From TrEMBL:
SUPFAM superfamilies: NAD(P)-binding Rossmann-fold domains
Protein name as it appears in the record: NAD(P)-dependent dehydrogenase, short-chain alcohol dehydrogenase family
GO BP, sorted A to Z: fatty acid metabolic process
Lineage: Bacteria, Pseudomonadati, Pseudomonadota, Gammaproteobacteria, Pseudomonadales
Main localisation: other
Gene3D superfamilies the record matches: 1.10.287.4290, NAD(P)-binding Rossmann-like Domain (3.40.50.720)
PANTHER family: DEHYDROGENASES, SHORT CHAIN (PTHR45024), SCP2 DOMAIN-CONTAINING PROTEIN (PTHR45024:SF2)
Localization (cell): Peroxisome
Amino acid sequence: MSDIRFEDKVVIVTGAGGGIGRAHALLFAKHGAKVVVNDLGGSTQGEGANSEAALKVVEEIKAAGGTAIANPDSVVDGDKIVQCAMDNFGRVDVVVNNAGILRDKSFAKMTDTDWDLVYKVHVEGAYKVTHAAWNQMKEQNFGRIIFTSSTSGIYGNFGQANYGMAKLGLYGLTRTLAIEGRKNNIFVNAIAPTGGTRMTEGLFPPGAFEKLKPELVSPLVVYLCSEHCQETGSLFEVGGGWMGKVRWERSLGIGFNPDEGFTPEDVQANFEQLCSFENAVHPKDNIEALKELMQNIQKFS
Ligand code: NAD
């Protein structure tokens, strides 16, 4: 075990004016990082803007002896946030994509605005900030990126079709950027946090909200972003002092002769076996995922 320090590192945390992002920013600063505290300062539904939120967190960091700068841009203008890091600190080593909003409605009642705004902040915003920092990270041969997913994306949740789509989309982005970044020492992971913030007020049973302190999410994020950590392409659920890793599991499946063809009734007759998780596999990449399919072709050749 070694000390986890960020003295020569510049960290951008988006949506760091409150909640979980604020906790990340404070912990990175405590571990020596120069932090860009980004926050648009709007409502949970993505309305309005207020630069005070980010400024307040910067004051907190400075009061504790740390280094930080506030940035009030929206994540959809990600290039401005990265430019702010470059102008003030000269580099970007870590991007924690944390900014988020909610526009919860049952799918029947969801409007195009609800769909678009959630997509814009979570997916387009994370893309814009990360894309603006990517080439810097490649050039310096170091980068750490976190995307903030959600159990609502992994497992689904009533009233969160837009949010679930965006949050699982970020895991897809994580998987591919981990592959593309590996050779340049750019490691990319996703977290699905649970924390007592303004976003989750009233959602948890009495007593749980206070226990789900946002700062209980941050040690995992800070570790994943350290030089010592070689983890990439992974997804972690984290909150309330607990954390665990998530992976895909797929049934071993069934195979028909591709030359002879088969009917929907054949699928019906074998459906239980198709869905059986006995001897399930855990493909790590596309090649592993295609293994059983390729074996089936070979078996009947
Ligand atoms: P929060 O509302 O306290 O924090 C989100 C922050 O993002 C706010 O400060 C907000 O001003 C900022 N923000 C919103 N839109 C922005 C934009 N366009 N540009 C810049 N900043 C913007 O909520 P939180 O619970 O701390 O959420 C943090 C992240 O964690 C979000 O991505 C959220 O979806 C995710 N998440 C939270 C939970 C939970 O249990 N709290 C669960 C799953 C996922």
